[in-house]
Backbone:
């Protein structure tokens, strides 16, 4: 029987329609900006839940990765499944990846607001089609599946892929990354460089509230981990298959689930955290741009662990300025300040037309900031996952290799 929270896999047509729906994510305020009561859960949820790298960006001296070839086969699901795709950490609304895009104010007013917004970064014009390699970042070519099988409905929520063969130790240990929001788009990047880790993809809708509510009770995540272990045991014949290394990743609104999980006992098992333009927060005082710090506490705590070399954390942010709640640039810069750090300027061209303008590195905590304030710029952050896996997770985890 399908778990009640398990979403149906969208067909190519519905995935495209859901992506278009996600481009409306600025039409409504995010959960973080509202004052509704938080759902009951064993894990504390302070205030309300907020709204919803490419080797070049990871290594200062490394050459930027080549864009995927345009003649690659199209992706199964087409665009990122947006039942939340573009409205991830944010609202369910209209600017897709860009909050500024849906702002009806005059250009001069928007420019002034951008200059005055704490944590805001400068934004250049959206890269040309040629600059992006004639690729739509929201519907990138499908590179195939590599050593991996197709999506399986085995998990209690979402779907998973694992290698045809291998991917587990003799004792049954395996590594897993659980990704929230945009599972098919993320899969296309993951398979390019992953060597054997299992990928679980979960899409629950538009806006971070859907993710926050679904994972507010600790048993939901615990059951998910158990179901993944059972699925790997069944496929490999290793009756005692167990999760060796655990990572969480999210794009856009998917951070709502991550916040809940990090507050729970099982969250202590997380070794790696990847946030792809995916962390927002509400304002305690919008005029002063004072953030609701309680919403960011689990991320700040994890960043401190990563900076100390006890875990791994990667954050990327765009220059999108959403209405009524903190942008991913503001939250990233706030977390860096909590570590008594300061981002340094950077200038380099990255995957899918992303232009890096700032970065911060301490221990195993890495932040990358980019220009771009529109939907394609938001989607392009998914393209960073291939090199996050190659540059950081592969050498860190040394996952058992998968084979065809």
Residues:
């Amino acid at each position: 029987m399908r778990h009640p929270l398990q979403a149906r896999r969208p067909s190519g047509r519905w995935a495209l329609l859901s992506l278009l729906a996600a481009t409306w994510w600025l039409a409504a305020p995010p959960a973080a900006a509202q004052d509704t009561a938080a759902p009951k859960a064993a894990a504390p949820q302070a205030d309300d839940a907020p709204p919803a790298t490419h080797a070049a960006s990871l290594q200062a001296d490394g050459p930027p990765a080549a864009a995927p070839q345009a003649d690659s086969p199209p992706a199964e699901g087409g665009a990122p499944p947006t039942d939340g795709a573009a409205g991830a950490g944010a609202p369910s609304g209209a600017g897709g990846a860009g909050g500024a895009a849906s702002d009806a104010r005059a250009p001069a007013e928007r420019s002034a607001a951008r200059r005055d917004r704490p944590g805001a970064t400068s934004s250049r014009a959206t890269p040309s089609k040629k600059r992006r390699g004639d690729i739509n970042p929201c519907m990138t070519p499908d590179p195939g599946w590599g050593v991996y099988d197709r999506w399986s409905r085995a998990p209690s929520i979402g779907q998973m892929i694992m290698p045809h063969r291998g991917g587990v130790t003799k004792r049954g240990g395996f590594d897993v990354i659980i990704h929230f929001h945009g599972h098919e788009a993320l899969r296309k990047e993951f398979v390019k460089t992953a060597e054997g880790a299992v990928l679980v993809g979960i899409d629950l809708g538009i806006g971070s509230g859907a993710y926050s509510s679904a994972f507010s009770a600790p048993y939901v995540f615990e059951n998910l981990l158990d179901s993944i272990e059972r699925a790997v045991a069944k496929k490999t014949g290793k009756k005692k298959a167990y999760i060796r290394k655990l990572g969480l990743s999210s794009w856009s609104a998917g951070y709502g689930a991550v916040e809940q999980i990090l507050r729970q006992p099982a969250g202590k098992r997380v070794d790696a955290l990847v946030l792809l333009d995916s962390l927002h927060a509400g304002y305690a005082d919008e005029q002063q741009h004072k953030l609701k710090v309680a919403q960011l506490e689990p991320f700040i705590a994890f960043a401190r662990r990563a900076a100390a070399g006890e875990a791994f954390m990667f954050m990327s942010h765009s220059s999108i300025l959403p209405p009524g709640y903190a942008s991913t640039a503001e939250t990233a810069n706030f977390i860096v300040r909590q570590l008594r750090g300061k981002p340094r300027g950077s200038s380099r061209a990255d995957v899918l037309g992303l232009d890096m303008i700032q970065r911060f590195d301490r221990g195993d905590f890495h932040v990358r900031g980019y220009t771009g304030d529109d939907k394609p710029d938001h989607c392009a952050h998914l393209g960073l996952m291939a090199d996050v896996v190659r540059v950081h997770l592969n050498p860190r985890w040394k996952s058992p290799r998968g084979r065809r």
Q: What stands out?
A: Residues 224 and 303 are 24 Å apart (CA to CA). Confidence is low (pLDDT under 50) at residues 1-124.
